[in-house]
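Trying the structure run again after the queue cleared.
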Amino acid sequence: MIMKKKYRYVLTMLSSNEQPNETELLKKIKEFMGVMRFAYANPSIIKSFQENKFVIKCIRGYESDIINALSFIKQLNGKRTGIYTIKTSGTLKSLRA
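Done. Tokens:
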């Protein structure tokens, strides 16, 4: 029997008021997590609420690895920035509230 993959959604915020470059952000996450853990976590940016807030989707159990990798990112698009985790949830609906 094949089990359905369960996902977690991490609401994050950039300290700068810029839209993050998705490929550069995922490349930085891979750099800090390592290739194998990145492949297992399967992160993707799925939604932007405002200019500096966005949601990262990952496989359940790897959300703490994603959060740790985000805390190490200090520069995006050649500019200094910080990425902060606001909330982690199992559904997108609860992130909006």
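The longest strand covers residues 7-14. Worth checking whether this holds up in the mutant runs.
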